[in-house]
Description:
Blueprint: E1 6-13, H1 20-28, E2 46-51, E3 55-61, H2 71-83, E4 89-94, H3 102-112, E5 118-122, H4 130-140, E6 148-151, H5 160-169, H6 188-203, E7 213-221, E8 227-236, H7 239-246, H8 251-268, E9 271-280, H9 288-293
Parallel strand pairs: 1-3, 1-4, 4-5, 5-6, 8-9
Antiparallel strand pairs: 2-3, 7-8
Helix pairs in contact: 6-8
Amino acid sequence: MNQQYKSGFATLIGRPNVGKSTLMNHLIGQKIAITSNKPQTTRNRIQTVYTSKKGQIVFVDTPGIHKAKNKLGEYMVTVAERTLSEVDVILWLVEPTTFIGAGEQHIAEQLRKTHTPVILVINKIDTVKKEEILKSIDAYKDICAFAEIVPCSALKGDNTDDLIQAIMKYLPYGPQFYDEDTVTDQPERQIVAELIREKALRSLNEEVPHGIAVSIDQMKARKKGGIIDIDATIICERDSHKGIIIGKQGSMLKKIGSMARPEIEEMLDSKVNLKLWVKVKKDWRDSDFMIKNFGYDKKEY
Length: 301
């Protein structure tokens, strides 16, 4: 065993929209986690893998910690909080501000209970002046016993190398968990579903996105021609939402499909024939059976 090689798990936590998925995608150099400016984009733990000559970091992206409003929300918070004790280092992402709101206080409270080293990552430093960053560090530094504080910009890639070095400090020595070609442990179908959901989140107005899920009905490679046929259903909670998702003469559904297809093709490295459907399943977010059906299973955690 290489005594110099490090290998371990890091989790990214923070309120919704602080840039967790953007940061992870940047560090890995490939798009795995979906991003949008709407809350609750990430619903499941996503493991992605960063491998270098010095070590391997397995990132566990979690749903944002927030006060839950329904069963799906409760599930998401449980997943996020449980992760804290199962990793080697925690990255808490915040925005460069001196205002520490109730959401951040709630996270700080969870972090004070854990013995895992916490790195405070002040993200989005490209949006403020240097003195604002210093004020922000000053505001946050005493809220928790941080192992390190690293300001960075996930979007621009500023200081992300420093962040990797900081994480490596807290990982145990040991062999790789995954071979160097592994980028994620997510099944392909799940990433395809998430990419479609991301495009729907980005295209639709405020009311609809929370209540959507995507299920892949079939994903099959043709014997000839190297095309993959994918049938997917966008599930929503109301009949009125179904109309919005389909759009005038199917225009919205076409838009979602044409935005998702190139990214799916890039990931699968193949031409894709994507067909989308829309179904209404009322109040699925409060049904244990439905939540499980769309891949969010409490028993797994």
